[in-house]
Amino acid sequence: MTTSIASAPEYRSPVRRLVRQIGLDTQFILLGFPLGIVTIVLCVTGFALGVGTAIIWVGVPVLLGTLMLARGFATVERARIGPVLGRRLPHPYYKRARPGASFGKRVLVPLSDGQAWLDLLHGVFRFIPSTIAFCFAVTWWAGTLGGLTFPLWDWSIPRGPDNSDLPELLGMGDAWSTRIVFHLALGFFFLGTLYPVLRGTALMEALFARGLLSGVTELREQVAEAEAARDTAQAQKAAAVSAEATALRRLERDIHDGPQQRLVRLAMDLGRAEQQFTTDPEAARATVAEALAQTRETLDELRALSRGIAPPILVDRGLQAALTALAGRSTVPVDLDAPPMSRLDPAVETTAYFVVAEALTNVAKHSHAAEVQVSVRRAPTGLMITVADDGVGGASLAKGHGLAGLADRVEAAGGVMNVESPDGGGTTLTAVLPL
Description:
Blueprint (H helix, E strand, L loop, with lengths): L13 H39 L6 H27 L17 H9 L2 H12 L1 H22 L1 H4 L12 H4 L5 H18 L1 H20 L1 H43 L1 H21 L1 H29 L2 H6 L1 H11 L4 E4 L8 H22 L4 E8 L2 E8 L14 H9 L3 E5 L6 E7 L2
Parallel strand pairs: 1-2
Antiparallel strand pairs: 2-3, 3-5, 4-5
């Protein structure tokens, strides 16, 4: 079945939305008044009877039944005020007795539930905003309909000889036309103010109910969301510290195993060449040439380390150019899918670059893969990075593995990372970074 564009809610005209909201507010107010009468009678009667007879224990089940009745009316009210507020209210948490509890505890647990007493409080006092809203709604609808239709029923109003020509005696012209104009003006006044009056009174009644029936639950949800956000921030902070520590240890190891050893050898070669200049110049020149080769190799390693810290091409030309250069240096053939995109936040670009760089390094060291596919695309959920190889698999995000530090770095940036690596089935690394 197809739905026309004009009938879809998002394509309703402002007039249709206005009329629909007036209808919702009207039925909410008119239905709330009789519900308020029934609720206050039953809740007040049950509460008074239960409290009055509680001394002989007869009132306890009566009071419990009253709380259950108030809970039922509260559930109905939460469903009613949803369309008025434009949102679905959360169902509150009610205390429950533990499984296997005695009958006495099952009875006393609802009596100690704060939300149950708030439901009863709403049942007792909801009549006040319901009555106020009902009076305004009836008055404005009567003024609107009565004023606009006055010419149709003016003839049915009996008038005596004393007041039939009052407008003429006051110099206001014809009596009939004056009455028509006056009542039509009143009708248009009530019609023009109908929406704000109905909306205001309906919101007054709905917000009163929301405060008592869902206020505590919404406050608990906000506290839970704040605690979850705090835990997430703490986890990101811990991940950032762990990722930084891992990067520093790796940098220290690389410097110690590479440039530092070469510099030590360079110093020894230069010292030997200094001694050889007096006895064997040819050997000294060969030693100096070897030292120069060592110097070039040391510079190459330092450049590689500097690219690992902050690759200049990433800063100057963006993520796509940096990934292209990275794929070109890989010892495993890389099929790169990274379409051009606008510049991202520097932290996002840096994290994405290191995800691909570390993944390609692990592929070259451990996977024995023949090819690796790299995809970096911008999606509605964020920047999606996928690195898949056809190697031996067995990779893991557990602590102690090479990808653990990379996962911490992604988490520190607010993203998530997943690795699928069955034995013999290749490895697929997926990371999503928020934009």
